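Hi all, long-time lurker, first post. I run a small reading group and we've been trying to get comfortable going from sequence to structure in the token notation. Rather than ask abstract questions, I figured I'd post a concrete chain and ask someone more experienced to write out its structure so we can walk through it together at our next meeting. Sequence below, copied exactly:
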Amino acid sequence: MTSNFRKPQFIQWPDLPMPTARMACVGYVLLIIYASLYPFNFNNFNLQVGVEQFEWFWAPIPRYITSFDIFTNILGYVPLGFLLVFALYPRSRGYQALWIALLVGGLLSGVLESLQTWLMSRIPSNVDWWANLGGVAIGALLAMPMDPRWLSGTAFQRKRHEWFGQRSSVLILILAF
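-- Answer (accepted) --
Happy to help. Here is the structure in token form:
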């Protein structure tokens, strides 16, 4: 007995950018900004005293450094480095993505440390900046060896098509609500 059964064809997935990673990266940057500048009570007291905006960078290492502060700074920036490598794929890969992630993470951390000079409840520190940069480096290094299918999001798309079918976007949207 013969049947008209055909084996499904293999879909060739190109390396596509992952918009979800880009949106998650922007959301995480906003979360870091909120956490770094809370309670947003900016004043110009430090400018009247004579504290320069970038003086924290050349200041000596603070006398009291807690391991908890360093650990939370590193841990807070690890996801940023990870998400930056995901967001840069496929345009930037490997060490180029690492250097861009370090540059973006260092600039973000430096701007936030400089803005903290206007907050009375925050003390900007170069140790915080180095810890943040280390967290970005750890996150980016963790994301670099991952398979390109995971970085481009095609592995998630492939699993979705295997489980729900090729026209499953409407079904998943209905299930989400």
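A couple of things your group might point at:
The first helix runs from residue 19 to 37.
The mean pLDDT is 83.
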